[in-house]
Amino acid sequence: MSGNDDADDAADRFQTRAIHAGQAPDSETGALMTPIFANSTYVQDGPGDHRGYEYSRTGNPTRTDLEANLASLEGGEHGRAFASGMAAINTVLNLLAAGDHVVAGDDVYGGTHRIFTQVYEDYDIDFDFVDTTDHDAVREAMGEATELLWVETPTNPLLNVNDIGALADIAHEHDALCAVDNTFATPYLQRPLEFGADIVSHSLTKYLGGHSDLVAGALITDDDDLDEQFGFYQNSVGATPSPFDCFLVLRGTKTLGVRMDRHCETAMELAAWLADHEHVSQVHYPGLESHPDHELAAAQMDGFGGMVSFELDATLEAASAFVEETDVFTLAESLGGVESLIEQPAAMTHAAIPKAEREAAGLTDGLIRASIGVEHVDDLKADLQQAIEAALQ
Ligand SMILES: *Cc1c(COP(=O)(O)O)cnc(C)c1O
């Protein structure tokens, strides 16, 4: 049972909302699917007398449908779509002013760490990065000037699980907002607003789009004031998605539930198989009972997701050889598509972190991150096995 399927009203169940929320047939033509409104501007019946749309940066009907759909899936009041996940994150940071302070997880997405430290620190906003599984450390980092607590769960690439409810409480004790990047879990598996988060952020590029064919982002909130500000910055900064990309994400969300069910099922089987493998020293997957946050994940999530990380007993070079040997898994960054991807954080996504710091954070040379697609599990297993044999024996 996933995506809040226990809702009373059958029409309210996740997979039904995924197909229908925000997507009434076009009133003019009856077109069943949301049209791609490829317009920059709209006719006005008199000066200022428009029919709800005046300019596509400000609003576009394809985007409106996507925003309503995403809000519904997260169980939130308001959705806003952006040109990328980073544009969505930037919009949250637009709420801040010089002198403000932000507390964030010490293993947030690299692009998030970069925009915090290399863009916003120059605007006199301070950031502290702490282990967000350590609630005392989070409390200690919060101060008078703290306006925002930024949380990811599960995290990348070690798949640590953070307690959204506890962290939202800590943020609120300090009159700060709690924002959760829900990209890895998706609303099918986890809805942060239910646990008290104020803002949910997404890279739609990943599971929601689901087919590795677009870049987009979103923010969802229940708070009218926050949404109004997000709309103001969306229009003022202008990082809006194209109507075509909005259409593609709507196409993706329709199958989110069925895709996530398969991602979870296959990831679980592969994680269990890898955990028993003689050349694998550790597997990071919240679905395994050996995962330190397994109980929390089981309580907070409706499934354990499609990301699996594991440590090969191997040097940096041998682990590189392994990811080069896979055939079904494609060697690439990113995640969340129907095709399986594999990467080596120490040599790719996290290579910019100095080795000593990397190792201290658990990002060993032999660490492999896999985004499990929807191919047949036996083909994926056989592919990993042949690559291990080719690279390590
Ligand atoms: C990819 C990603 C982002 C950034 O999204 P883009 O669409 O690439 O801009 C943010 N957070 C997480 C967790 C991601 O995986």
What does this structure look like?
- By secondary structure, the protein is α/β, with parallel strands linked by helices.
- It folds into 2 domains: 12-254, Aspartate Aminotransferase, domain 2 (3-Layer(aba) Sandwich); 257-392, Aspartate Aminotransferase, domain 1.
- It has 14 helices and 12 strands.
- The protein has helices spanning 14-20, 61-74, 85-93, 110-120, 135-141, 164-173, 186-189, 224-237, 243-254, 256-275, 294-300, 316-325, 355-360, 377-392; strands at 78-82, 101-105, 126-130, 146-152, 177-181, 199-203, 217-221, 280-284, 307-312, 330-331, 341-343, 367-371.
- The strands form 2 sheets. A 7-stranded mixed beta sheet has the order 1-7-6-5-4-2-3, sandwiched between helices.
- Helix 1 (14-20) runs antiparallel to helix 2 and helix 12 packs across helix 14.
- The radius of gyration is 21 Å and the shape is globular.
- The chain starts with 13 loop residues before the first helix and ends with a helix.
- Bound molecules: pyridoxal-5'-phosphate (PLP).
- Pyridoxal-5'-phosphate binds next to helix 3 and helix 4.
